[in-house]
Amino acid sequence: PVLILLGPPGAGKGTQARMLEEQFGLVQLSTGDLLRAAVAAGTDAGKQAKAVMEAGELVSDDIVIAILRDRLADADCAKGVILDGFPRTTVQAEALDTLLAESGQKIDAAISLDVDDAAMVDRISGRFTCGDCGEGYHDTFKAPAVAGTCDKCGSTEFKRRADDNAETVAARLDAYHAQTAPLIAFYDAQGALARVDAMGAIDEIASTLGDIVRRAT
Ligand code: AP5
Ligand code: ZN
């Protein structure tokens, strides 16, 4: 299956994608994570993406589509994928349709996580992740059971993202509304859209998404 999670920064795309990955044995494909890895590795794409990401703007369609296409060709993706943060523009959505058609696949569901912008600043500014296994946390909403120790792997190394400051978050929200929100109508027209109120508790949202995935696949 191919699932898409749409939603503004902080909506919980990464959090829910990782839960669906465990529950359904799918592969989470986050273009944000792939781009951050390219920046860290200092590849050409990473060098071009770095400043754009720090400004909270969208990296060019060419770069992102190329990165996604490469990753999608990996053998593990045959199990099915959850796209987290891709597509983000109409050009990317059309490129994805073409890519999937080439391998006889289609989108099973595009799930929009609906939230209010004001709350997103709090979610993002409290966010941190495990430096070893990548598990996501939040200072107030999802703190580790033992302070300073990862629930999943026991690591004591945590990191915060360079673009998680109030100014960049505002630019990321603007980019979402201008360039990504039109995809809600795009997937509605394809009959693939599901909308979920993503202001509730993480586990409740996860159970709603689980029902949608079971129905769609
Ligand atoms: P990306 O990495 O995709 O970031 P984003 O879209 O801004 O999304 P976030 O990762 O900030 O939020 P999320 O929805 O995953 O929320 P999370 O689950 O972490 O993109 C970064 C940059 O890369 C972009 O700005 C752009 O420059 C570039 N880029 C990436 N893809 C691109 C593309 N396709 N095209 C062009 N450029 C691209 O949750 C947030 C926090 O809230 C966590 O701490 C979590 O614990 C907590 N939380 C989650 N759910 C809840 C809940 N229900 N209640 C309370 N707290 C919650
Ligand atoms: Zn960990």
TrEMBL record:
It is found in: Cytoplasm. PROSITE patterns: ADENYLATE_KINASE. Its main location: cytoplasm. AMP binds at residues 31, 36, 57-59, 85-88, 92, 161, 172. ATP binds at residues 10-15, 127, 200. It is an enzyme of class 2 (transferase). Pfam families: ADK (PF00406), ADK_lid (PF05191). The keyword Transferase applies. GO terms for molecular function: AMP kinase activity; ATP binding; zinc ion binding. Residues 127-163 form the Adenylate kinase active site lid domain. It catalyses: AMP + ATP = 2 ADP. Zn(2+) binds at residues 130, 133, 150, 153. One of its GO terms (cellular component) is cytoplasm. Residues 30-59 are annotated as: NMP. Its EC number is 2.7.4.3. Pathway: Purine metabolism; AMP biosynthesis via salvage pathway; AMP from ADP: step 1/1. GO terms for biological process: AMP salvage. Keywords: ATP-binding, Cytoplasm, Kinase, Metal-binding, Nucleotide biosynthesis, Nucleotide-binding, Transferase, Zinc. InterPro entries: Adenyl_kin_sub, Adenylat/UMP-CMP_kin, Adenylat_kinase_CS, Adenylate_kinase_lid-dom, P-loop_NTPase. Consists of three domains, a large central CORE domain and two small peripheral domains, NMPbind and LID, which undergo movements during catalysis. The LID domain closes over the site of phosphoryl transfer upon ATP binding. Assembling and dissambling the active center during each catalytic cycle provides an effective means to prevent ATP hydrolysis. Some bacteria have evolved a zinc-coordinating structure that stabilizes the LID domain. Catalyzes the reversible transfer of the terminal phosphate group between ATP and AMP. Plays an important role in cellular energy homeostasis and in adenine nucleotide metabolism. Belongs to the adenylate kinase family. This is Adenylate kinase.
